[in-house]
Design goal:
The chain has helices at 39-45, 94-97, 129-132, 142-146, 151-161, 178-187, 202-210, 223-230, 246-255, 276-279, 296-304, 323-331, 333-336, and strands spanning 2-8, 11-16, 28-36, 62-69, 81-84, 123-126, 133-135, 170-174, 194-199, 215-218, 236-241, 256-264, 285-287, 314-318, 340-344. It is an alpha/beta fold and 360 residues long. The chain is globular, with a radius of gyration of 20 Å.
């Protein structure tokens, strides 16, 4: 088969790779029908995630059809249409028993496209298939579903739930990329008084408005003043960092009110300064987190009911074999206007299962 293979910082290619097969009895192999590109993939290519070894197929989000299932995969069957979650869960360790799948100690967590071959390929092996694959209702399209593999649960869990958004809150979101926009969409489920979005891109600020943000600000023009003006000088109840650079994290800590919450969602490749000389007296709660995807079944039901605007996030579509072009479009979003890039199309042939193989 073919997959998008990482060869080191700044180097990747769509090329021939071995077909995947069931290695453990709880595995499944999925034919990839629809896949997308994440900002984290760009961080990997930028060298910010050194754990990713050269030779790894990238990607951790997909929709497809199960073509093979191990003998202990009990809830998925060949022929079933499924969502491949970005986080894998063993279901047995302490963290999985608490629903904190992102910290799985049993061989799961974020492994696809990170520690093992990922989803940006024609087929993918998914460990612990029973908890890591979600059967899809007919009412949810492939394009909608693939956005529930990562950006919507990440925004909802790490941004909205960790930030403890409540009715009547002022929520400021710094960064109007796909995850930041998904924070806007899911924060509105909790009836905040207002959502304010700061970004550098006029197009993304306009997208935030269309998703329900009451106010937007150019991040270069002191959005903290807008927040102060709209809150009578109090500050935001919840500030969500959705970029992953020191400047935006520090901006969030300046805009949050005493007793408020800063929810860091962005993937950081450099240290940020924590100004405790200012924050120690403010009773501020700062949270970080990797998505657990425990909310995915709920988000799937909400999408099927028309409550989440997932399809609005897709700005570009490509066939699977134009992966390199799709990456270029997504990486230059300021010029292309890309929000989410979705790739899909039927595979050229059937997978040839490989019963056993060496461990990763």
């Amino acid at each position: 088969m073919k997959g998008y293979v990482f060869h080191g910082p700044g180097q990747a290619a769509w090329e021939e790779v071995p077909d995947p097969g069931v290695r453990e009895p709880t595995d499944a192999v999925v034919r990839v029908d629809t896949v997308t590109i994440c900002g984290t993939d760009l961080h990997i290519l930028g060298g910010d995630v050194p754990e990713v070894r050269p030779g790894t197929v990238l990607g951790h989000e997909a929709v497809g059809e199960v073509v093979e299932a191990g003998p202990e995969a009990r809830t998925v069957r060949p022929g079933e249409r499924v969502l491949v979650s970005c986080v894998t869960a063993c279901g047995r360790c302490r963290y999985c028993r608490e629903g904190v799948y992102g910290q799985c100690l049993g061989g799961g967590g974020w492994i696809l496209g990170h520690l093992i071959d990922g989803t940006q390929a024609q087929y993918v092996r998914v460990p612990f298939a029973d908890l890591s694959l979600h059967p899809l209702p007919a009412a949810v399209t492939d394009t909608e579903a693939v956005l529930l593999a990562d950006i919507f649960p990440t925004a909802y869990e790490v941004g909205v739930l960790n930030g403890r958004v409540r009715p009547g809150d002022t929520v400021v979101v710094v960064g109007a990329g796909p995850v930041g926009l998904a924070v806007v969409a899911t924060a509105r489920l909790f009836a905040p008084e207002r959502v304010i979005v700061a970004d550098l891109s006029p197009a993304r600020l306009e997208a935030a408005r269309k998703l329900g943000a009451e106010a937007v600000a150019d991040a270069r023009e002191d959005p903290g003043q807008l927040v102060a003006d709209l809150t009578g000088g109090l500050g935001a109840d919840v500030a969500v960092e959705a970029v992953g650079v020191p400047e935006t994290f520090e901006m969030c800590t300046r805009m949050v009110r005493p007793g408020g919450h800063v929810a860091n969602v962005g993937v950081h490749g450099r240290p940020a300064t924590l100004h405790l000389e200012e924050l120690w007296i403010k009773d501020v709660t700062i949270t970080t987190g990797l998505v657990d995807t425990s909310s995915t079944p709920t988000l799937l039901r909400m999408t099927a009911a028309g409550r989440l605007p997932a399809a609005q996030f897709v700005t570009h579509t490509f066939p699977l074999d134009r992966m390199e072009e799709a990456y270029d479009v997504f990486a230059h979003a300021a010029e292309t206007g890309a929000l989410k890039v979705v790739l899909g199309g039927p595979p050229p042939r059937e997978v040839v299962p490989v019963p056993t193989a060496a461990a990763d």
